[in-house]
From TrEMBL, chain A:
Lineage: Bacteria, Bacillati, Bacillota, Clostridia, Eubacteriales
Boundaries of every PEP-utilising enzyme C-terminal domain copy: 252-541
Cofactor: Mg(2+)
Active site: 189 (tele-phosphohistidine intermediate), 503 (proton donor)
Full protein name: Phosphoenolpyruvate-protein phosphotransferase
Gene, per the UniProt record: ptsI
Protein source organism: Acetobacterium wieringae
First-level EC class: transferase
Phosphotransferase system enzyme I N-terminal domain residues: 5-126
TrEMBL record, chain B:
Originating organism: Acetobacterium wieringae
GO cellular component: cytoplasm
Biological role: General (non sugar-specific) component of the phosphoenolpyruvate-dependent sugar phosphotransferase system (sugar PTS). This major carbohydrate active-transport system catalyzes the phosphorylation of incoming sugar substrates concomitantly with their translocation across the cell membrane. The phosphoryl group from phosphoenolpyruvate (PEP) is transferred to the phosphoryl carrier protein HPr by enzyme I. Phospho-HPr then transfers it to the PTS EIIA domain.
Gene Ontology process terms (BP): phosphoenolpyruvate-dependent sugar phosphotransferase system
Record localization: Cytoplasm
InterPro entries: HPr (IPR050399), HPr-like (IPR000032), HPr-like_sf (IPR035895), PTS_HPr_His_P_site (IPR001020)
Primary gene name: crh_1
Major location category of this protein: cytoplasm
Residue stretches making up the HPr domain: 1-87
Pfam families in the cross-refs: PTS-HPr
The name this protein goes by in its record: Phosphocarrier protein HPr
Classification via Gene3D superfamilies: HPr-like
Superkingdom of origin organism: Bacteria
Keywords: Cytoplasm, Phosphotransferase system
Length: 577, 87
């Protein structure tokens, strides 16, 4: 028996037999060839065969995993047809008399390196595509048949170096119960696939393919990030217990689904979901979210090749509003700029993009674009409880300016005799420190606030959390952040019919839940999967206790001290994330 | 053979969508079309080649075409670049 630790990529515990899925290590023939024409023919046949395979996989991926996954294989097919790839390989064969396999490997590696070195996630994804396609062509030239995972006769845990879309698309989803791989991170394809299949995964185990054999009994513990190979009876029993405990916990969360998020002493808050596109609404409903606290409309723009028109936007907003007939849907207007750009909207490079032309500032510059969105939201507002939220507000002047444009749109719709909700609620993101400090002033013009902790932390602590050199300074538990949150909620408490929510990552953090409840937050908006856990915490505490904990925390000196204190308090209440 | 020099003006250069528009436009012509950047020749019908070329805003490139529709091809591609890909 032995235990290894890796990166937690998908939660849960599974006990099953290992299946080592080894990529056949492809040995290419490095000798000069006598007959280049024969090699060219081999290459062309392999391209043809690869095309046929990709088409089969594409159809399977679309039916089992959706259009988006299918599109990956369309991109792969484009690489097969690419003249630079095809001619590159043919040139190596004709000019240098390389074998077809050697030529494919050399050309694939050349492109892989170019794309991999570009510091851009778009190109990293292209690099992975090229490698996946290159390997496929190579295997077809050499007649190597990759182990077939499409029909398995028992439940297995897949052990691999890494898994590509080609690998996962064809797996027997009924039998594959877990992943353990040598490399990978929480954002790699294997991790995303594991979470969408809801199976445990531990990645980054370095040499798991060397140390485990097919048929070994093993445990993948996606809760602690451990894998245990050939466990003894004692360990097996303890893992069975842990597994049962986790299943019970999930069942308990499931049972909370239709219950209110209400404290033991009767304070009710709203738990809602963050979504990026209309399809995400289903996940929010499934997890018991009563509405949407943040609809990030920029995905509508980013997933499109051209500026999405009023009709397209209207249809998207309407479908989300109709999914929540009773709950609020907070639609955030376009938040682009900073690290997010649109291919069809020219933007100058800026020295400080996060302090520059982004979000509402960009919308004021591109009023035409802004009005299309506002008109679409207004028109959709008759189908539910639409709330309009403006991002990156720094002062009341901007709120007034945005509302004036909204008024213009309302007037246009009046003139055109098009219906909209005349009492549509208007709010702002609180993500710039000046807006938090002047929350009482800004509140005069709006119906609600939503605190965006990610940017609020970044701007308050002056730290770029993507910069590894300084990201340690990024801390939502920093007393300065808690005090800013308190300034905002205190304003909200004084006004009737006014609410303050939070839509940053902090709202879904179990460790922050009691603090935020105690600070008086009315609405918590988070990724759908976090909702049940936060609901359980809210339903297990008294509001009075949460207030006492928050008050004590506000007077502490460091984020670390606050986190330790909250952890202790949760333990005392028999709560631990 | 026809050739013309042109400077890429759009903000993202020949990246993602502009690159694919460029390659698709090139693909409509029968002529052999190449982009010459700093002496390197890139097949204008290859999305991988064009994207890997790292042609950013402000880069001057030469477009060369040879074939029956060489004039039309060069004109169409130069115009696409001068129009900033419709941005």
């Amino acid at each position: 028996m032995f235990v290894k630790e890796g990166i937690i990529a998908s939660p849960g515990i599974v006990i099953a037999k290992a299946l080592v899925y080894e990529k056949v290590i492809v040995e290419v023939n490095k000798n000069k060839v006598e007959d280049p024409d024969k090699e060219i023919e081999k290459f062309q046949n392999a391209i043809k065969k690869s095309h046929e395979q990709l088409e089969t996989i594409r159809i399977q991926a679309i039916s089992e995993l959706g259009e988006e996954e299918g599109a990956i294989f369309e991109a792969h097919a484009m690489v097969l047809d690419d003249p630079e790839f095809v001619e590159g390989v043919e040139a190596e064969i004709n000019d240098s008399h390389l074998s077809a396999d050697n030529a494919v490997k050399i050309v694939t590696d050349r492109f892989y390196e170019i794309f991999d070195q570009m510091d851009d996630p778009y190109f990293s994804a292209r690099a992975a595509d090229i490698k996946d396609v290159g390997t496929r062509v190579l295997q077809n030239i050499l007649g190597i048949v990759q182990a077939d995972l499409s029909q398995l006769d028992e439940d297995v845990i897949i052990i691999a170096d890494d898994l590509t879309p080609s690998d996962t698309a064809q797996m027997d989803k009924k039998r594959v119960k877990g992943f353990a791989t040598n490399i990978g991170s929480r954002t790699s394809h294997t991790a995303i696939m594991a979470r969408s299949l809801e199976i445990p995964a531990v990645l980054g185990l370095c040499d798991i393919t060397e140390t485990v054999k097919t048929g070994d009994l093993m445990v993948v513990d996606g809760l602690t990030g451990r894998v245990c190979v050939n466990p003894g009876n004692e360990e097996l029993e303890s893992y069975e217990k842990e597994k049962q405990k986790y299943l019970d916990y999930l069942k308990e969360l499931e049972e909370l689904k239709d219950l209110d998020a209400i404290t033991l002493d009767g304070r009710k808050v709203e738990l809602v979901g963050n979504i990026g596109e209309p399809n995400d609404a289903a996940g929010v409903l499934k997890n018991g979210g009563v509405g949407v606290g943040l609809y990030r409309t920029e995905f509508l723009y980013m997933n499109s090749d051209v500026m999405p028109g009023e009709e397209k936007q209207f249809a998207a907003y309407r479908s989300v509003l109709e999914a929540f007939p009773d709950g609020p849907v907070i639609i955030r207007t376009l938040d682009i700029g900073g690290d997010k750009k649109l291919p069809y909207l020219p933007m100058d490079d800026e020295l400080n993009p996060f302090l520059g032309l982004r979000a509402i500032r960009l919308c004021f510059k591109e009023v035409g674009l802004f009005k299309i969105q506002l008109r679409a939201i207004l028109r959709a507002s008759v189908y539910g409880h639409a709330h309009i939220m403006f991002p990156m507000i720094s002062s009341i002047t901007e709120v007034r300016q945005a509302k004036a444009i909204l008024q213009d749109c309302m007037k246009e719709l009046d003139d055109e005799q098009i219906a909209y909700d005349k009492d549509v609620k208007v709010g702002v993101m609180i993500e710039i420190p000046s807006a938090a400090i002047a929350a009482d002033i800004i509140s005069k013009e709006v119906d609600f606030f939503s605190i965006g902790t990610n940017d609020l932390c970044q701007y308050t602590l002056a730290v770029d959390r993507m910069n590894q050199e300084v990201s340690y300074l990024y801390d939502p538990f920093n007393p300065a952040i808690l005090r800013l949150i308190q300034l905002v909620t205190a304003t909200s408490d004084k006004k009737d019919q006014f609410f303050t929510g939070m839509c940053g990552e902090m709202a879904g953090d179990p460790l922050a839940a009691i603090l935020l409840l105690g600070l008086g937050l009315d609405e918590f908006s988070m990724s759908a999967l976090s909702i049940p856990q936060i609901k359980k915490i809210i339903r297990s505490v008294r509001y009075e206790d949460a207030k006492a904990i928050a008050t004590a925390a506000l007077n502490m000196e460091t984020g670390e001290e606050i986190m330790d204190f909250v952890q202790e308090s949760m333990k005392k209440l028999n709560l631990y994330n | 053979m026809i050739k013309k020099e042109v400077t890429v003006l759009n903000a993202t250069g020949l990246h993602a969508r502009p690159a694919s528009m460029f390659v698709q436009t090139a693909g409509k012509f029968k002529s052999k079309i190449f982009v010459i950047k700093e002496g390197n020749s890139i097949n204008a019908k290859s999305i991988m080649g064009i994207m890997a070329g790292g042609i950013s805003q402000g880069t001057t490139i030469e477009i060369q075409a040879e074939g029956d529709d060489e004039t039309e091809a060069v004109d169409a591609l130069v115009q696409l670049i001068n129009d900033k890909f419709g941005e």
